[in-house]
C-alpha cells in the first residue's frame, strides 16, 4: 500500500468553470480593444512617425551644413594670418617666442617615454623652449623611471624640468596650475600641453605658434588628434 501513488480526479465542473473564465476574458478583450487598445497603438504609430520625421530633418540639416562648410567655410590658414617664424641671422633665436611645454603624468609606466621624447625632439630653438614634466605618480618605481628619462634628455642639452609636489590637489588641472607657479616659467610667452601618450610631430610648434603670434584675438589653438594603433 505504501508504494501506491495517489491519483487526483478533477470534477467535470472544472472544465466548465475554465471555459466560462476564458469566455469572460474574451468578452473583456473585445470591450477594451476598440476604445482603448487601438487608439493607443495608433498613438504609438504617430509618435514613431514624428520621431522618424525629426530624425530625417536632422540628417538633412546636418547634410546641408556639411556641404556649406565644405564649399564656403575658410580654412584656418585663410581665415587667420599665418606667417612662419623664420630663423634670423641677426636676431638669432630671439626671433622665436619662449614656449613652455607641460606634460602631466600619473603612473604612466607604458607611455612616459613617448611624450618626453617627442617634446624633446620639437623643432624649436633649445634656449626658447622649456619642457616641464609634472609627475603626480604614486608608484616610486615609475617616478624614478620618469626622472631618469628627464635626466637623460637634460644631458643632451634639452631644457627639461622634472617637477613633483606633496599632494594631488586638483589632479591634472592642479598639477598644471602648480607648474605655472615656478619662477622659470615667468619669462615663457606661450604654454603647450601634451598628455603623457601624445607624440607631436617635430614641426608642431612651427605650425601652431604662428597663429597665436600673428592673431592677438586668438587665445587657444586646438590641434587635431590622430590615433595610431
UniProtKB/TrEMBL annotation:
Chain ranges of the Glycosyltransferase 2-like domain: 103-226
Keywords annotated in UniProt: Cell wall biogenesis/degradation, Glycosyltransferase, Golgi apparatus, Membrane, Transferase, Transmembrane, Transmembrane helix
Membrane spanning residue stretches: 43-73
Family annotation (InterPro entries): Glyco_trans_2-like (IPR001173), Nucleotide-diphossugar_trans (IPR029044)
GO molecular function: mannan synthase activity
Subcellular location: Golgi apparatus membrane
Regions annotated as coiled coil: none
GO CC annotation terms, alphabetical: Golgi membrane
Protein name: Glycosyltransferase 2-like domain-containing protein
